[in-house]
């Protein structure tokens, strides 16, 4: 567990002196920088320590923090990165020049438990200076503000520079820049930025990374900024450097403004500086506090365990990942995992700032539980308006405008939007028309999937099939509510068949692990005992598919497709735990699957196509939901997820899986994605599930159909029959519950949804029966024509029979 000191949020702001008067940039700059395009660009590590954006939509800028500095900044949408990094450089003018990132010990604190407000405190390892930075986004405009206090601790005077590496419009190449009006401006296509300081800059220059015109290269040579270039007009990897006038204890504000052109960006930076940091920061904090106040009460599982700040940050994180131009579109993470090893020259790599319908389902179900159904409804609208394809499918993921990012197909991502629509009671005719397309696609293409939820292999996947079955049962209910009883019957029939077959497709009885009886991760052909090989497409190697397991089969329980006590589910847990579970200093966590290659290399280097998969905290949350479904406690799982968070209360995608090494701490985040929205959502949803005593995401319509707890089957008879005044419709059949063919004992049906007549009859499980519909008018009885109808009370706790009167 984290120490109390590390976990405590620091609320009080530093008391700062008045800002210094603006100082003009020194004269005699050179004209245009040489050296274009400069060295190649990359992004930064995916392990963020803090991030933020204004709660409102007027400010379309998002900042991220890590390594003691500012990382990527996004504008005007949450999938468009514009900054590689922004940090300070300190020099004594004679003996040293130091990057803030590389030469300080670092502390990060959350300054307000009800706001995404972070402070970085960096102290020089040589003891000469301390830099304290408090970050906010101006809620009124697209500007990031960094209130900075620079203290000389010994041996002054020192010089301070802001080193800015713009990577505008999702590309480290293609940027041009200049000094204009005392600010450093840059642009690339539709995105421009302006770097400004409340003090002004003493010197300012624009150049190309790694060349003689790079201000940091120049400064590092003799510790004095010599050449200054007032423009860098050839597109390339732009670097900008501005000297800030400082004394022994100086407080000032740095602003990074964005706009569609340089003038707009400069105007935003100037206006934000003129308004002052304190005013913008107060409004920023108020916006987030107001959002939290609009939600449901904090769960007892959270407040009773002292986890309220962690819970609030999780909820704010989910909201902060929603775009402000495309409402309802939440990216998976404001990160590019192992971005320091990713080519940042072009615009092709989406990183995790793309929209997956599966991740959006996880986020939305957490938001529903927390009282933000409005956000979840925006996401449903986005899914079915922007992402859904004409054939009813959903892409693997997209950019915000719906353009493909990665291009495979994952059948669970077709199913989850249907389940989400059902959970939000979106039963209107317009939604049904869209749901029907997706349900029909599932029927036509399922249950096998080109990729399952780990996005690397295809075949018969327990987790994917669980989502498909849940999607079809939810679609059937929506169909019935819209009078399409034919589609409803078809979806239920297919779902029941797949539910009955999922073990036969994916449960091996001849595996090499444990007693050989367990669900394996995925089966290529639906024969789990044939020993077919599977090639793990992340550097994990080639293996007998029976030897590769994950805990994805738990989705069968969480989605209501199988009861928690299902013998095949129970039989698989020992193999999962013995193969995938690690007891970390923060609690129990699990790998995605054995031989996973998606993680740092064995020596701790960034993943570039092969590595060692690490532990995923969200899997601890999923296991907690399963334990609840079994009637067991899950508080340990909740505490473990909270303990995996960093000092900024951000829960990672992956944590280090062994004794601390290579710069990583056992049980804490790696260079993958931190925060991962799915991880934060799982934490929120588990907390509400603990309070409810059951997983809150489980669709009741699915659980009711497949629960083994019911003693019989509720058969719902629906017949489309036109009648005249005084006429009524009944169902009668060969069983006593159906009147034993005696019209006097026939079951009356309700005309509440005329011309549909409906009624429910309790039947024993497995009972076969015959029936027909009759019409009564006074003492007269009219039987429908044709042969006896037949049915069997199998497949779950409910049975829907949808017919049309045969005259």
Automatic annotation (TrEMBL):
Question: What does it catalyze?
Answer: Endohydrolysis of (1->4)-alpha-D-glucosidic linkages in polysaccharides containing three or more (1->4)-alpha-linked D-glucose units
Family matches, as InterPro entries: 6-hairpin_glycosidase_sf, 6hp_glycosidase-like_sf, Carb-bd-like_fold, CBM20, Gal_mutarotase_sf_dom, GH-type_carb-bd, GH15-like, Glucoamylase_active_site
Q: Domain CBM20: where?
A: 707-807
Which keywords does this Swiss-Prot/TrEMBL entry list? Glycosidase, Hydrolase, Signal
Would I find Signal among this entry's keywords?
Answer: yes
Q: Name one GO biological process term.
A: carbohydrate metabolic process
Tell me which EC number(s) this protein carries. 3.2.1.1
- Which positions make up the signal peptide? 1-27
Molecular function via GO: alpha-amylase activity; glycosyltransferase activity; starch binding
| Annotated Pfam families | CBM_20, Glucodextran_N, Glyco_hydro_15
The entry's family comment says:
Belongs to the glycosyl hydrolase 13 family.
What name has this protein been given in UniProt?
A: alpha-amylase
| Protein species of origin | Amycolatopsis keratiniphila
Q: What is the lineage of its organism?
A: Bacteria, Bacillati, Actinomycetota, Actinomycetes, Pseudonocardiales
């Amino acid at each position: 567990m984290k120490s109390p000191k590390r976990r405590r949020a620091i609320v009080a702001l530093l008391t700062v002196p008045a800002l210094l008067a603006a100082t003009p940039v020194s004269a005699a700059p050179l004209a245009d920088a040489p050296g274009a395009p400069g060295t190649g660009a990359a992004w930064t590590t995916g392990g963020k320590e803090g991030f933020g954006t204004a709660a409102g939509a007027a400010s379309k800028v998002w900042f991220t923090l890590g390594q003691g500095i500012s990382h990527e900044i996004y504008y005007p949408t949450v999938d468009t990165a514009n900054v590689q990094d922004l940090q300070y450089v300190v020099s004594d003018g004679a003996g040293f020049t130091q990057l803030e990132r590389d030469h300080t010990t670092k502390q990060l604190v959350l300054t307000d438990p009800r706001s995404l407000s972070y402070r970085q405190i960096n102290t020089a390892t040589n003891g000469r200076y301390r830099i304290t930075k408090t970050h906010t986004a101006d809620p009124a405009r697209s500007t990031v503000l960094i209130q900075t206090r620079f203290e000389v601790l010994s041996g002054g005077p020192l010089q301070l520079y802001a080193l800015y590496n713009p990577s505008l419009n999702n590309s480290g190449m293609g940027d041009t820049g200049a000094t204009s009006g005392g600010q450093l401006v840059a642009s690339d296509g539709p995105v421009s930025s302006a770097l400004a300081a409340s003090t002004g800059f003493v010197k300012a220059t624009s150049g190309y990374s790694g060349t003689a015109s790079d201000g940091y290269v120049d400064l590092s040579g003799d510790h004095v900024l010599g050449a200054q270039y007032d423009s860098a007009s050839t597109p390339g990897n732009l670097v900008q450097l501005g000297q800030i006038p400082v004394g022994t204890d100086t407080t000032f504000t740095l602003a990074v403004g964005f706009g569609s052109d340089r003038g707009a960006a400069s105007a935003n930076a100037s206006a934000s500086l003129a308004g002052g940091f304190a005013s913008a920061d107060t409004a920023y904090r108020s916006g987030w506090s107001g959002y939290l106040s609009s939600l449901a009460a904090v769960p007892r599982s959270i407040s009773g365990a002292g986890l309220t700040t962690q819970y609030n940050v999780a909820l704010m994180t989910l909201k902060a990942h929603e775009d402000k131009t495309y409402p309802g579109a939440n990216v998976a993470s404001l990160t590019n995992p192992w971005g320091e090893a990713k080519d940042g020259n072009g615009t092709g790599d989406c990183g995790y700032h793309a929209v997956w319908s599966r991740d959006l389902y996880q986020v939305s179900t957490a938001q529903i539980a927390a009282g933000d159904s409005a956000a979840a409804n925006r996401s449903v609208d986005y899914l079915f308006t922007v992402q859904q394809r004409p054939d009813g499918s959903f892409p693997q993921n997209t950019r915000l405008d719906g353009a493909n990012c990665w291009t495979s197909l994952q059948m669970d991502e077709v199913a989850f939007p249907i389940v989400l629509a059902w959970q939000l009671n979106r039963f209107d005719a317009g939604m049904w028309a869209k749901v029907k397309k997706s349900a029909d696609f599932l029927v036509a293409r399922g249950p096998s999937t080109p990729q399952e939820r780990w996005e690397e292999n295809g075949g018969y996947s327990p987790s994917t099939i669980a989502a498909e079955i849940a999607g079809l049962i939810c679609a059937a209910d929506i169909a019935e509510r819209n009078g399409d009883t034919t589609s409803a019957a078809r979806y239920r029939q297919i779902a029941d068949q797949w539910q009955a077959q999922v073990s036969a497709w994916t449960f091996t009885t001849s595996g090499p692990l444990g007693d050989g009886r367990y669900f394996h991760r995925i089966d290529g052909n639906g024969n789990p005992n044939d020993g077919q090989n599977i090639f793990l497409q992340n550097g994990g190697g080639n293996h007998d598919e029976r030897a590769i397991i994950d805990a994805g089969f738990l989705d069968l329980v969480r989605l209501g497709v199988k009861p928690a006590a299902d013998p095949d589910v129970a039989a698989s847990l020992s193999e999962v735990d013995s193969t995938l579970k690690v007891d970390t200093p923060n609690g129990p966590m699990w790998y995605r699957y054995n031989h996973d290659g998606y993680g740092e290399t064995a020596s701790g280097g960034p993943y570039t196509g092969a590595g060692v998969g690490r532990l995923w905290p969200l899997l601890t949350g999923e296991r907690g939901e399963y334990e609840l479904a079994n009637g067991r406690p899950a508080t340990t799982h909740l505490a473990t997820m909270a303990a995996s968070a960093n000092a900024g209360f951000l829960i990672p995608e992956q944590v280090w899986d062994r004794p601390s090494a290579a710069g990583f701490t056992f049980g804490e985040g790696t260079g993958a994605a931190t925060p991962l929205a799915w991880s934060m959502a799982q934490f929120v949803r588990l907390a509400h599930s603990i309070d409810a005593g059951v997983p809150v995401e489980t669709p009741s319509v699915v659980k009711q159909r497949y629960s083994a707890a019911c003693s019989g089957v509720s058969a719902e008879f629906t017949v489309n029959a036109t009648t005249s005044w005084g006429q009524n419709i009944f169902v009668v059949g060969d069983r006593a519950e159906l009147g034993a063919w005696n019209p006097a004992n026939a079951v009356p049906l309700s005309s509440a949804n005329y011309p549909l007549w409906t009624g429910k009859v309790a039947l024993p499980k497995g009972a076969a029966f015959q029936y027909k519909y009759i019409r009564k008018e006074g003492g007269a009885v009219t039987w429908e024509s044709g042969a006896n109808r037949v049915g069997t009370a199998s497949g779950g706790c409910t049975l829907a029979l949808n017919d049309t009167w045969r005259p």
